[in-house]
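Bench notes, afternoon.
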Amino acid sequence: MKFGDNLRKLRKLKKISQEELAEKVGVSRQSVSKWETGDAYPEMNNILELCKIFKCNIGELVNDNMIDLDSLDEDVKMSIVKLKKEEQNKIKKISKIIEVLSKIGTIVSKVCIPFIVIIMIILPVLINGIEVKDNKLVGTGNIKIVEENNNSYIYYKNSRIGDFTSNDESLNVITSALKNNSKVELIVTTEAGIILLLVNVIVVIYILDNLRKLFSNINNGDTPFTMENADYIEKIAKLMIVAIIVSGLGEGLINSLATNDFDMDINGIDIVQILFLFAMSYIFKYGYMIQQDSDGVMYGGTEDE
């Protein structure tokens, strides 16, 4: 379909007359008429203005496959090619940013693992060294709790390992948990909660790794519609299901210490996000099938601007 045919079709869809379109673009009605008949072509700034008016991209206006590109003026042709390359570079940059952020997130998550293990080792000692007397936390053995200026500071062998303000909600939760549970119950439940937290961190690492691979492929110039990328999205969706379940179990266990009521909290928005990811994986698979006859390359060239 020629440029003039595209322009006429879009104008009629929007129910805009040639006079109205000419006024919006800032040209004469005769110019619009010549554009539609193919007797003349608009300058690049007018093409961009037409795209704004019709809320379309240049491909939809000129021709998505650029079949009639050679019929355009040389200046317009070069401007369109340049704009397509700029759009490609923009996609590459966004893909690179997501790839780098995924790498950083993976590194940060891996750094968290030894800290979680240390907490697992220290926590039983901490629980055994804290008692509740007169509705206040007091330390025993190597654990000391010092109150200063409405703050409670926890020391282990003269090294401060934590602090709470007097109105800190977590302080009330700890006090309630110590009152309502035996030390064995507290240790077993909290250790189970920390193990679930560790599992959750590991799952997040795998999610970020699949995300990195997905956008690494797109950044390299391959079409996103590949079975490999669809598999990455499907894996992310499945891993998110695991993360939500594990996170809900861990939160429910910890909350049960203070309330004696296990409540696995799963939000509706979490389910929507997972369904969205599964839908995206099927879209990618469908995109792969309909492009079987294409070259399977997303970008027009390998040169950077």
